[in-house]
User: Fold this.
Amino acid sequence: QANPDNWAMAGASGQKTRLVASLWLFALAVAAVSALWSLDAAWNSAGSSGPLSVSFLAPPSLVGAGGDALRRGTGASAGSSSSHFSGSSGTQLATCFGLLAVGAVAVARAGVQRRATKWPPSIAVKGELPGEKYQTMTTKPVIKSEKLNISDEEADLYLQERCAGLHKLMPQSEEEFDDEVEENTWHWGKHLLGFSEKGTASLTNAKNRILRKQRQFFQDYRLFKPLAMKYPSMVKSMRKGQYPGIENRDLAINSKFVYNEEKIAGFSYEDFVGATQGNTFTGDEWKLPQEGDIVTGQVVGFNPAGAYVEIGGKTWAFLPTENASLSPIADAEDVLSVGDEINAKILEISSESAIPTDQDARTITLTMRELLSFKAWDEIDSIMKGDEGTSPVLQVVVRQMAPFGAVAQTKSGLEGLIPNDHLAGREGDATLVGQTLSVEILDSKRDAALSGQLNPYEFALRFSYRNYVTRKLAADLEPGMVLEAKVKAIAPLGVDLEVNSYPCFLRKMDISSLRLGDLGSLFEVDETIKVAVLSVQKETGEVRFSTRMLERTAGEILKDKEGVFARAEESAKKYVTVVEGFVDNVGNMGLGQATSAEPKKVNIDLGEDEDVAF
Assistant:
């Protein structure tokens, strides 16, 4: 396990290097000044004759001829005393400065080294006392252990018991150890390459010697660190820190490290080896899922591209942002949080992983879109069936306006279309984009959507905004009622109306009993007409209007439109009476029973016109 103290040391290595370099420069400066001082004292003590008696520390104005005057002015006794001071005390002072500088550098280096090795690693030089505290770096906050209340003898006995138990679970004979060393040596030597180099051969031999010289250590250490046999030189240099010149020649397992690790983890190395089938991970619980499998995982972290999910077996998978929701989102954290338990599908088992130091790294890629789609369609089916607790009204967000309608998306992420004739007069209205509308479902095509058999520009869901808007209107209407309506637009298949400020539609087939041509010759935009309620569905808000039921004879609205609207209430009332009488007549006949009686003839008095028999 990585150690945060070591990481902190590595992060501050630049600062420590600069500190040591500064101390070295200081020491060199002091040593240089001390040397000059000593040399000056030595020359002064040599006598008063010759140019060597001139002090190297004197100002330039006193050098040369001025030096002689300086010597003459001092006198013999004074010169002798000065020479004695410079030669004896100066040398001693220089030596003291030098020793102090060397000591400061040594203390600085020792301080750095102590900071680099103050945590107890899994191996130690024999005789070295481990530290009292240890920190482990995990994905969770750093765990700090308490003071180890265990003696060296108790820790060594504890280690012996652990080793004995692990040797039973992962036995290895002397021959098997030698075979593993030889196999690793063959891999280290890279004999399959078409060339060889001296450095590789030298390193291979060094690794081989490390394993064979400390056979017992590596036989025991592999029980706790299975990769130790593969990287012996790394094990040997684990305690070097910043000083590659230091070699650990006599290694031993740190017994207190093992004790502390198991105490923090809450289980022993033997428990782990037993649960992993001797580090082979061959049990069913360790089998990796395959592509297409549905897995349950827990969100453990995020990055700008998605979320990391732990899917069991100490395995992490990656969930890209675009696969975390059916709706467009900017970040996976918009819909997920750390600790959330999710269900996802394995999209790819060996996706490339963006690890710069490992070009062969692979990861598992997840997607939630398919499962979310199934769940969303189940909700739609429940609404269509009218299940208890569901509402026929959906909230959708308009994503874009198209020539044929408005593309909208439900809260669960399903896309659908609101056709122009169901936009309640707001077709082509760009201000709808981004707005939330209350709509009803017209129809759905679940199977086609899930199987991918939809044609371009075809939507599996169709909504009606008009039906929702007219729901309030429908609540107050009954068949046979006559209402005033204003013509808003004329379309090939009917006329858009405004009834009591609600947008409605009058179908072409409900205008007259005769076949009609261009409706523009019959109605004008903004014209006020009368319509009768042919049928009404209060549950859905769908209202069907008609002018055909106001005609006394077929095609009358084409000949006398004003007269039809003038007699609208009377004609609608007689129409309802006829229909009710017809229904009663059919009921009296007894459905499903043979009868010889002739049907009762119903006559309707339509005033001056000829009676019509029904």
Summary: The CA atoms of residues 189 and 202 lie 9 Å apart. The chain has a mean pLDDT of 75. The longest strand covers residues 341-352.
